[in-house]
Amino acid sequence: MVSRLSVAAPLSVAAAVLVSVLVSPLPAGRHGATTVKVPRIRLVPPAEFIQLISGTFRGAWADAFYVQGVLALTEETPNRHDRVRDIQSRLRLATILDPRLVQAYFFGGVVIGQDRETIRMGIAFLQEGLERSPQEWRLPYWIGFGYYALGDYLEATAYYDRAARLPDAPAFLRSGQPYLYYLARRVDLGITYLEGLLHSIQDKGQLEWITLKLRWLKGMAYLEQKAEEFTRIYGAPPKRLEQLVESGLIDAIPEDPFLGGYVWDLASGSVKSRPRSPR
Questions:
Q1: Rounded CA gap, 230 and 223, in Å?
Q2: pLDDT score at 255
Q3: Which of 74-112 are b and which e, b meaning 16 or more Cβ less than 10 Å from the residue's Cβ?
Q4: Residues 178 and 259 sit within 8 Å (Cβ to Cβ)
Q5: Which of 57-71, 114-128, 131-145, 185-199 has the lowest mean pLDDT?
Q6: Comparing 45-59, 141-155, 239-253, which segment has the lowest mean pLDDT?
């Protein structure tokens, strides 16, 4: 029988060799009178190998790769996509070694995004994390943020909704989604979503806020329906909402309870809310 000591000794030697190969000092920096050297991990080995040799120091290894991934965000490289892959490989290894390092996903999935391509790379990284930690509400929330940055508001809403249903998710996640439906020009989905919330929310303050947003979206849906009717009658959409009143289709433009008033947007051919004027 092979003793534990005979197995542990080769692994200890392997760990020492690995450290000497993978880690090299960065140029020394100064903090007051003390010189500090930060190790630079040259390569990112397979997670299985690090798990094998790390033993009881797995948390320390995780911290090392996490810190190196964060520090690498400040480095400039000729190829941006290679840089993203390098940073994510370090942060990925950190989260495999220590699943509690959820903040690593923030750096590798949100901070990393500088253009549409790197934002998509960040979303893919976050989706990996969601597979490993499906009950962590921050992961679908950050994915939704990525899709929001890409202008894919319906996909953003789907992930925000997923985040809102997970344990410990903050209440604001539920109340913010109707605005994304508005941006996506799917007011009907926003109304359906809010009507569903009315039956599941007990807090009086939240119910008042949801009712306000529901009135806002229903007013918009009503005006869009009348604008479609105007288009069928006159062969062209209205240029302003006042034409719906002038044509007799509505008695008055409903009050906008949420923003600064409903307006007809010529560019998109839809009803929008005017921002409130500063007082």
A1: 10
A2: 92
A3: eeeeeeeeebbebbbbbbbbbbbbbeebeebbbbbbbeb
A4: no
A5: 185-199
A6: 45-59
- The confidence score (pLDDT) of residue 249 equals 95
Distance from C-alpha of 90 to C-alpha of 69, rounded to nearest angstrom:
5
Residue of 205, 146, 131 whose CA lies nearest to 172: 205
Q: Phi, psi at residue 39, to the nearest 5°?
A: -70, 145
158-165 CB contacts, 8 Å cutoff, 24+ apart: 161/193, 163/137, 163/138, 163/139, 164/137
Residues sharing a CB contact under 8 Å with residue 114, sequence separation 6 or more, in sequence order: 80
What would the mean pLDDT of 158-178 be, rounded to a whole number?
Answer: 82
Q: Report pLDDT digits (tens) over 198-221.
A: 766 777 777 888 888 889 989 999
Copy the structure tokens of residue 253.
């433009």
DSSP 10-62: HHHHHHHHHHHHHEEEPPPEEETTEEE--EEE-----HHHHHHHHGGGHHHHH
Indicate the average pLDDT of the chain.
80
Q: How far apart are CA 120 and CA 113, in angstroms?
A: 8
CA dihedral in degrees (7, 11, 14, 18; nearest 10)?
170
**41 vs 20: CA distance, rounded Å:** 10
Min mean pLDDT across 53-67, 110-124, 125-139 is at 53-67
CA–CA separation, 179 vs 173, rounded Å?
11
CA 52 → CA 14, 58, 59, 123, 128, distances in Å?
A: 10, 9, 13, 29, 22
d(C-alpha 254, C-alpha 204), whole Å: 25
Question: 185 — alpha (psi -120 to 50), left (phi > 0) or beta?
Answer: left
- Residue 34, phi then psi, degrees to nearest 5: -100, 130
